[in-house]
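User: Hey, my collaborator sent me this sequence without any context and asked if I could get a structure. I don't really work with proteins. Can you help?
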Amino acid sequence: MLTFTLGTFAIALNHLLLISALALATFVGWRVAKRGGENPESVLFSLFLTGMLAARVSFVAVYWVHYRNDPWQIIDLRDGGFLAWPGVIVLLLTALYRGWRRPGLRRPLGFGLGSGLVFWLLATVSLGIYEQGTRLPEISLRNAAGDTVQLADYRGGPLVINLWATWCPPCRREMPVLENAQQHRPDLTFLFVNQAESMQSVATFLETQGLSLTNVLFDGGGRLGQAVGSMALPTTLFYSNDGRLLGSHLGELSQASLAHALKNFDTPSSATPSPSSRKLPCPASATC
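Assistant: No problem. I've predicted the 3D structure and written it out in structure-token form, which is a compact way to encode the shape of the chain:
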């Protein structure tokens, strides 16, 4: 399961773990403070924001080449561009400074922050182990010609699967980013799996938007989203050559966040298409 869904509300599990860690840290700090010391609730929240800011700034610095032509993207947090460890280091250093300045805060803050970080670390590692044990689902889809194809047939090379729909604004915004990646990364196979829309509506959308995509597939019943445990759109999945899930991204991808996600794969050494793209050649149509 990649997302937690309640009605129409969906949140990525890694985001839910982060919020849960903050809640646990606040609760533990409050309980310890009742036995003596200052309540660290406001300090923990400010530390959380400081860590998130540091994680964002470090991400932008590492991927500055993707932001320099459009600096406004820096404040667009919808791409999920954060580097965790710089954020954790800054958070810990700031917590040490706060504790040094306020002795009554040290014990509650230490217990609260420690419990939250331990929970987050263990939960994140467990989620990563679970994801990497997930395999490419055995599901049949349809291509633009109306023919049935097996998702497993694309196994054999690095695979990027994007679950999307034309009515989804983040899906529409990220599509040019994925189109550009498909054109410049022939070592990867990109599959654009539309969720429960007609072939005609998708073809009209691609034509009106001037998008040229290969490997557009159709999942009329939304079975792929159910199989991978993500009912939110857009969802992008990254699979290894042997069909093992390397990572996932819930929400809109920017050039920077996609570049970060593609670090799961080796740097391309040639412009030779991947084995999976050679296995199922695209028919002579705008999409396949």
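In plain terms: Residues 140-279 form a domain with the Glutaredoxin fold (CATH 3.40.30.10). You can pass these tokens on to your collaborator as they are.
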